[in-house]
Design a protein that fits this description.
Strand content: 5-15%
CATH architecture: 3-Layer(aba) Sandwich
Number of helices: 8
Largest sheet: 6 strands, parallel
Helix content: 25-40%
Strand order of the largest sheet: 3-2-1-4-5-6
Shape: globular
Number of domains: 1
Structural class: alpha/beta
Number of strands: 6
CATH class: Alpha Beta
CATH superfamily: Isochorismatase-like
Length: 247
């Protein structure tokens, strides 16, 4: 079997435990997936490709170069899904101007006060809203955009009801961060009995180890983690009609 991105982080004991326990079986995607693009916005990508230690000087939540490496793959997936009539759903964050609704987001970072308009780092040369979805993958009129306050795309949002209305039975997952909002969304999809196919090259994180290990854990228990070619081949098999928005 080809080496996976997480293999170098696993001990031989870990590999044997997964093998003996039967973890990581491929469950297969659904017959009517929707593409989910999680939080691919300026706060996580920045306005240009920079090494991450430079990128975080402008946008503290930036994932640096890894974000910009993922963008062309996400663009390809979006275009292919639109060609096939597969729904495209974006998420991004939202926050009040006074930051009151950040809630628990304020607890685990010493720079959390930068998430309000008054808290932009001095290195940033723009007033752009960090929750704006990247121009490189901008939503089309028929696409769905969901604003969320917490990591999961499902928590406190209409995503489940939208999937039911679309007639979708599963998700193709991309976005950021792999260890945070992607993982939270995949676990909620699993809990709601939606199959998930995660596109490895279409996800990114600010921590290389967290990216790899969370892909490993999701592949082991909750989803199929596939590479780009496999994802595109899967999309090409979809022949379904959806209750799509008209735009």
């Amino acid at each position: 079997m080809a080496e996976r991105i997480w293999d170098k982080y696993l001990t031989e004991r870990d590999k044997e435990v997964f093998y003996q326990g039967g973890w990581g079986a491929m469950s297969g995607g659904g017959k009517k997936p929707a593409l989910l693009v999680i939080d691919v916005n300026y706060a996580f990508c920045g306005e240009k490709s920079l090494p991450i230690l430079d990128a975080v000087k402008e946008w503290r939540t930036s994932c640096g170069e890894e974000a910009w490496e993922a963008l062309p793959h996400i663009r390809t997936l979006i275009d292919r899904c639109r060609e096939k009539g597969i729904p495209v759903i974006y998420t991004s964050g939202t926050v009040r101007d006074d930051g009151w609704d950040k809630g628990s987001w304020a607890w685990k970072t010493s720079r959390g006060d930068e998430d309000t308009p008054d808290g932009a780092p001095e290195a940033r040369t723009t007033n752009r809203d960090g929750n704006d979805i990247m121009d490189e993958i901008a939503p089309a009129p028929q696409d769905i955009v969901i604003r969320k306050l917490k990591p999961s795309a499902f928590h406190g949002t209409p995503l489940t009801s939208f999937l039911v209305n679309l007639g979708a039975d599963s998700l193709i997952v991309t976005g950021t961060t792999t260890s945070g909002c992607v993982r939270a969304s995949v676990l909620d999809a699993f809990s709601n009995n939606f199959r998930s196919v995660i596109v490895e090259e279409g996800c990114f994180d600010r921590s290389q180890a967290s990216h790899a290990i969370n892909l490993c854990d999701m592949q082991a228990k909750y989803a199929d983690v596939v590479q780009m070619d496999t994802a595109l081949d899967y999309i090409d098999t979809i022949d379904a009609e959806y209750n799509l928005p008209t735009g």
